[in-house]
Amino acid sequence: MQPFFRTLTGVLAAGVLAGALTQGAAAAAAGPAGRSATASAAIDWKPCPKDATAECGSLRLPVDWARPSGEQFELAVARRKAADPDRRVGVLFVNPGGPGDSGVDFAVRRATGQFSADILERFDIVGFDPRGVGGSQPVKCSTELLDRRPSAYPRDQAEFERLAAYNRALREDCRRHSGPVFDHADTLSVVRDMDALRSSLGEQKINYFGHSYGTLIGQQYAERYGDRIRSMALTANVDHSIGAREFMVSSAAAAEDSFHQFVRWCDRTPSCALHGRDVTAVWDGVLARADRGELRDPENPDTLLTAHAITLVAFKAFYDPDWEELATYVAGLDAQERRAAPPRTATTQRTDQQTDQQTEEKPFHAVFCQDWNIRTEDYQEYAQLTAAELRAAPHMRGSPRVHDAVVGCVGWPEKVNNPQHRLRIPGTTPRILMLHSLHDPANHFTWAANIHRQTRGTTVLLPYEGAGHSVYGRTDCTRDAVDAYLTERRIPSPGSRCAAAEKQALTGG
């Protein structure tokens, strides 16, 4: 699975998605929650440009569901039909997370490697790009302005105010390049879109598989349309009920826990490039050298590495987890000779292939800052939150993902389309299966436990005792539990747990 903060590079070019629908779909899903939608026109499916074995299309929907007859956008959709039509159960909507990952790309390219043969045989895998993402009128921002982003670690009130001013300028720039969908990129709007898609497919009930930020889509769909669910499996769950301090501190604790999992693995694994050394001391020393401007990017020697950039590399490695590669990377940085600073520092200079583009797709904050009422008002509040973050994760220096997310909302308007709230899923909703790693680097296990406490009558929590962010394909236990649930709606027995994968268990991961 891709990281929560992944920036999309545009999965499908504009214009390749098949034609528009009539406006019946928008009207169908605009009705009050709990009422069945009327039938709407079918999607004009055509072979997908990147894989003709899948079908692609689009669905015209309102930008603002409060004004269903107003401006509209095209929701990009992809479908991979059940391989065994005689055993078909129904549609399985999928969302791989982000915010900003592409459901179309998942259905077209990744589903066949993600799901078991049984799931692919029995379900139509249906993915869509949430509004503002990929082929669904993506949020775009000026490359030149993105390149001028100030530090995410202001040191005083003046730097904090400069960060806030920059965020406001970037927000207006993105709105200008993206159109009105920017102001309606929240998950509640995505939930309305998903139910319109259900109606357009002629399905009375859906099955849903959501990962990471995709679990928030699933949770809020269940709140609003619980009677339209046949089954729902959620992995690496997001807790949308917590405030700023708990959000930052628990995320930092998750990153720190994953760091210690990495250290224990290295201590027990001879193939680790740091085996036999004090891994924590080496790591802290590398970050200290980065603070002093002594480390260069191995792939771009003219670029000085910041400690933040290094922790971000580690954080991404924890997702798989790819401890072997991380150990090699850290050992290489530690072995760098101390040389004079390069002629220029380029910690913010772009090194990707988009430097010649005028705009880039950047949906993350358009979604996140409308889903979370987390606004740091001044430097004093920021400093207090950061201090708590550092106490929770002294070696990882907080969670680089969440720190960037929260800091990116500094200076935004107070109004939030979809603020946090306690999850309230109707008792008539079928039981929802939740899986979550005990050592998830991004979403702390307490998030899943808290959601389960709030919805004990409608959710079942199956812990995976290993490390990593994705859960479904970790072991036979995790895969079989999801498959049995989606196909037969068999729920794991109370108290069930899935042991860590053998390699992690043997090496202390």
Automatic annotation (TrEMBL):
Q: Where is the Peptidase S33 tripeptidyl aminopeptidase-like C-terminal domain?
A: 403-498
Record key words, sorted: Hydrolase, Signal
- Which GO molecular-function terms appear in the entry? hydrolase activity
Q: Where is the AB hydrolase-1 domain?
A: 91-284
Start-end of Low complexity biased regions: 342-357
Family according to the record: Belongs to the peptidase S33 family.
Q: What's the protein name?
A: Peptidase
Q: Where does this protein come from, organism-wise?
A: Streptomyces aurantiogriseus
